[in-house]
Each structure stands twice: as structure tokens, then as C-alpha cells.
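Researcher: Good morning. I'm working through a list of sequences from a screen, and I'd like to move beyond sequence-only analysis. For each chain I'm collecting a predicted structure so we can compare shapes side by side. This is the next one on the list. No need for commentary yet; just the structure.
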Amino acid sequence: MTKNIQKSNLTPLKYADATQGIRHVFVRDLMLDGSIGIYPHEKKNLQKIRINIDLAVKEDLTPLNDDYRNVVCYETVVNGIENIVNSGHVELVETLAEKIADLNMIDSRIVSVRVRVEKLEAIKNTTSVGVEIERVRGS
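Model: Good morning. C-alpha cells for this chain:
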């Protein structure tokens, strides 16, 4: 009997880079119910969405001292995403991805952000549909 193990459909990214002093902070498969979509039925019913985020974070010379205040905290990232999703209806997955990227780029330590937003029940016979964006500081 073989187990059916679902493999990730995300492409591995090279965000951590010791030569550039870059740390990779990420959140995988954040599952939320959100009000998203352009159709009337999507405006009445919450939909399951999956969010993945990758952050390239510039390491500084400050010692970590085992203190979460000295790093980009993934719990803070998740709380911010949840606040955006819970703040009201969004028509486009692109808009939601942009809001998430913008929120994270407020932190000056973040060099780049990649956000993937997927609607899990939008199109029959698909696992998901959505968008992935990347934003780089100074671009």
C-alpha cells in the first residue's frame, strides 16, 4: 500500500545568501477563509485561500541575543496577512498579493518579497488558481 503524499507546487527559491548577508524568512501554506472575487456568489461567501510568502531580509551587525525583536518575526508577518484578509472584500487576487507585499516592504530590513495567493475552490477541476508577485526594494 503506497501513501499518497502531496508534493508542494512551489518552485524552490534562493533567498538566503551568505555572501550578501541575506536571511530567508518564509511562511508556507497559510490557509484562510477570505472574501475575494468579482462574481456575486464570491461576494456573499468566504472562499478558501492559500498564501505563501518569501522574504529576503538583510542581516545587520546587531547580535540576535535570542530575541525575536531583532529579527523579522514570521508571527508578525502572519498576523499582518490575517488582518488584511479580514479587513473586507477584495476583488482580485492580484490586489491581495500587492497589499501583502506592500505591508511587508514597510520593514526596511526586507530587501525583497515574493507573495503567492491561491484560490482553492474557484475553478472546477483545479487544485488552485492565483497569482505570484515579487517586489524588490528600489525597483
